[in-house]
Amino acid sequence: MKYLLDTNILSELMKKRPNGHVVTRLASLPSQALFTSCICVMELRFGSALRKDFEGFWLRIQEEILSRVNILPLVAEEALIAGDILAHLQKSGRPIGIEDILIASTALNHTCALVTGNTRHFSKIDGLMIENWFLQ
């Protein structure tokens, strides 16, 4: 099984006391099974850039987190999947943020389970495998 880690899972690891369930589950898996989206990297970078300790904090993210996961790019296939998801959700009156749609389309295209604490938004997307490691 392959897992795409959402931004809230990655950022959890930067906390002084990260969720034990998340840490345990990550430690039980080989790095070859762990992925994230370049969109999650963008969200981490954005959050880091707002901090006063940006450079040091960003270096920690790179060394402690991003170096241990496979970062998936956003390519044309994900863009097509995202467009379809966006249209479907808009037509059904259940829109979600474009970043989440791009993350979900990456997980779908690479047949990954999406690991997130944000199940409310992602559960609107048909066919997306979702796991919430905060609760396990």
Helices and strands in order:
Elements: E1 3-5, H1 7-12, H2 20-27, E2 34-37, H3 38-49, H4 54-64, E3 70-72, H5 76-91, H6 98-109, E4 113-115, H7 119-122, E5 130-131
Helix pairs in contact: 3-4, 5-6
Radius of gyration computed on alpha carbons: 15 Å
- On the 0-100 scale, what is the average pLDDT? 96
Strand proportion, as a percent range, falls in 5-15%
Strand order of the largest sheet: 3-2-1-4-5
Question: Uncertain regions: pLDDT < 50 for 5+ in a row?
Answer: none
How would the global form be characterised? globular
How many beta-strand runs?
A: 5
Helix percent band: 40-55%
Q: How far apart are the first and last residues' alpha carbons, in Å?
A: 17 Å
Summarize the helix and strand pattern as letters. EHHEHHEHHEHE
What about the largest sheet? 5 strands, parallel
Based on secondary structure, the structural category is alpha/beta
- Summed up, the helix count is 7
List keywords for this structure.
5-stranded parallel sheet, alpha/beta, 136 residues, single chain, globular
Short characterization:
With 136 residues, the protein is an alpha/beta fold.
Q: How would you sum up this structure, described in words?
A:
This protein is α/β, with parallel strands linked by helices and 136 residues long. Helices cover 51% and strands 11% of the residues. It has helices at residues 7-12, 20-27, 38-49, 54-64, 76-91, 98-109, 119-122, and strands spanning 3-5, 34-37, 70-72, 113-115, 130-131. Strand 4, helix 7 and strand 5 (130-131) form a beta-alpha-beta unit. It starts with a strand and ends in a 5-residue tail after the last strand. The relative contact order is 0.20. The mean pLDDT is 96.
